[in-house]
């Protein structure tokens, strides 16, 4: 690989934008090869032959693993890493240098059309799962692209909208997931988002791309633009956006050359970007050619395992599940025959094969009855993005199908009703407008439940949906989008060869109106204000003490677990939490042990509890496993806006351990020494600030308490709220001597 000084100005500029939709440019005279990057994230989407300009041509067959909404529900980063390894292997076989994923954006709004591509409403969860995927893919000598950096939480107006986020939520919620993955796994590349963040395009934001990503987090890879996200190219290079994708047809390369020649762009900035591209190419070239062909069966088997692990058993009254193969079952709902197993858009995989739930159920239980119950709209061609909604079937057809389904249900021991969101309801490129299931699906559930109370609802959806029937059916199985082996995964769980262990990585609200971003997303006039602040997802419902249909972290098993006492110790690098968990049931199962932390006396706003650590553990019946979780100091800190830095607040931390955010079995309190935070006093500081200051505090107390201000504004040693909030530059009007103020300020400077 040449040195940057071997390249001409034009060659350097050329390197910083794509050759075409998927490839980088070669420099033949210097032996620099062209490398290819492709989507991601839950499988390989490598377009066959020439790439078109929209990236929608058919792609080579690849294993379609569960999208992040599914895999994230496993709460198991080791499983994510195994899936990542398989994707990396497929990429290596196809000679792909970088897989464009994973996506760790936070599910801020339940309406975001791309929520199926993201892991969670919680940053620690998203970071942990994203790190698993990155580790796995990169273990194969293939790079990743952590996306979409940052605050890309809706599809509406995604190429222009400004996500207006205050510093604390930005740091503690939206950037934290990226920070965790970058610091823990060093992805080869980070993909900047389309949108603006606080008014600045992510593709040209020096704060995000250089100050935070590189200077604070130590990222040493390449920043790549989302496809078409580059705005003003020269500004982008200056800010730290190294590679523009896809090709700009040479236009922006020339702009860079001209800017350097005109003295508007420092050549060192361009050198830095081009050098990072060279480093990426060098890294990609270090991978030995993959030997052997793709083991389609082995990867399909892994996809099946991952699918089973992604399923969340929301409800199972009376132990109606698992089913016995001898039970007479009616399968209802066209999703059982035409499964929806991935979302539309750039992540759309051309699967090596597809398991159909109905067939897989029949393989276990024989020739069960089947009735489609409704008509699904035709699946869109290409990458599954539908531009127009399909016409609705005639009411007579709808009624006939429903009547047939009811008949089938009547004769069965159990009715399995498959309902969900068709492709046209959610996809990359647009947001949903509501969280309702299609009306025909809801009517079908009600009609079947009226005919046969033993209903198991099986859901297929990429984002949360309202479940108005939740109290009227005994069992609900959330299968999300499960990838190509989902049909087998569902049958495995329904018939108990897999004991469900998925947990919700997003809360299920009762109503759209209950959700945190309801009044602010998608915003207007190209601005969306993140007005709920740090109260995203369960933080919101907990703070407002709102009921939800199913809480964050929830998921049932076919066995039961009991918890011992929780112990927590401060380790210097965080909190070590230990608890014994026993499988008290009859079958082996996995429990996802979750640790939530709160800081009751905190000086800053806090959510009632925040997930800080979790572990998925396999436990045999009767067995007790000692589980150790680590809540690391980094993740316990809050962003202190007055000092512009992270602070581990000194004080008592309460650790609650449980099976969900609302099923907590025990807690322990641990004292954390924390960081010293001394905010220098200014004239705008309050009397309360002065009292709290380690040096100025004693002076302020002594001088103020004895004077007229203290007489009115204090009771004993305590300041009244009015006195506490009074700025130092005003207290002279209320009887404090000006000299006293100066002495306090001098001591607190
Ligand atoms: C998406 C990215 C994707 C890229 C390439 C964009 O539209 O936002 O997630 O990696 O296209 O297909």
TrEMBL record:
Range of residues in the leader sequence: none
Record domain Fibronectin type III-like: where: 591-661
Coiled coil ranges: none
Pfam families: Fn3-like, Glyco_hydro_3, Glyco_hydro_3_C
Hydrolase is among the record's keywords: yes
Gene Ontology MF terms: beta-glucosidase activity
Origin: domain of life: Bacteria
InterPro entries linked to this entry: Cellulose_deg_GH3, Fn3-like, GH, Glyco_hydro_3_AS, Glyco_hydro_3_C, Glyco_hydro_3_C_sf, Glyco_hydro_3_N, Glyco_hydro_3_N_sf
GO biological process: carbohydrate metabolic process
PANTHER family the UniProt entry points to: BETA-GLUCOSIDASE
Role played: Catalyzes the hydrolysis of a non-reducing terminal alpha-L-arabinopyranosidic linkage in ginsenoside Rb2 (alpha-L-arabinopyranosyl-(1->6)-alpha-D-glucopyranosyl) to release alpha-D-glucopyranosyl (Rd). It is not able to hydrolyze alpha-L-arabinofuranosyl-(1->6)-alpha-D-glucopyranosyl (Rc).
Family per similarity comment: Belongs to the glycosyl hydrolase 3 family.
Name the UniProt record assigns to this protein: Exo-alpha-(1->6)-L-arabinopyranosidase
Lineage: Bacteria, Bacillati, Actinomycetota, Actinomycetes, Micrococcales
